[in-house]
Amino acid sequence: MRTVAVLGTGKMGQAIVSGLLRAGWSPESVIATARSAERAAELREAYGIGVESNPDAVRRADVVVVAVKPQDAGSLLEELTGAFDGTAPVVSICAGLPVAFFEKRLPDGTPVVRAMPNTPALVDEAMTVLSPGTHADAACLEAALELFKPLGRTLVVDEKHQDAVTAISGSGPAYFYYLAEAMTEAGVLMGLPRAVSSELVAQTALGAARMLRESGSSPVELREAVESPAGTTISAVRQLENHRARSAVTDAIEAARDRAREIADEYA
Q1: Residue 10 annotated as lining a ligand binding site
Q2: pLDDT at site 260
Q3: Which of 147, 198, 235, 236 is such that its CA lies 20 to 30 A from the CA of 19?
Q4: Domains in the chain with CATH codes
């Protein structure tokens, strides 16, 4: 079993740690890093894993996961000058940062894989999309996939698609939460107890997601199956169209993609 070092244990870093352990990885094969002694103690107590300095973690690892914020990635790699030997694959989950950012700062020939998971990793329902870099062969890509398969579903795409991936699945959970928030508040406005409205929305979202995944029908077909002539659903959808909801969603996703591109330019 490989030894994995997770550099940065915020929500996504911690999700990777916990997912690997749930999948049967031994605590001895997972190393984490933390900003503070208090956070390190929390991780040791919660998971029984080793928590070490960034350089020590990298030197021990067969695979390194960079899970810090994009603005912190450059300083982290500077700190790690001399720690990388160029053989251990480096997997980045830093939103917006391209493979080239890491290849430029790591020893020549270091295999790099760019990955974009999302927060449903916390409940093993993530969508993680990976893109191998110049030096990442099939074995390196498989090592990266091995980290994320316990967290949900995985796909591999060319890196040119990663900004769109970030905008759709990386940021996507927030869009669904925004809609759920609006629907819940609408229910309360109409007199439903908040707990009832929240349960209606959550279960409806879960059921709709399963139908999208399992029915084999397109979103259009599923929506039309709910609508009936002159019915309640088609009246509601007409209001969404009157308010340009479809265009607003497209504009929002394009804004997320554009921001991912800006991040790459800012920290290049």
Answers
A1: yes
A2: 94
A3: 198
A4: 4-157 (3.40.50.720), 166-264 (1.10.3730.10)
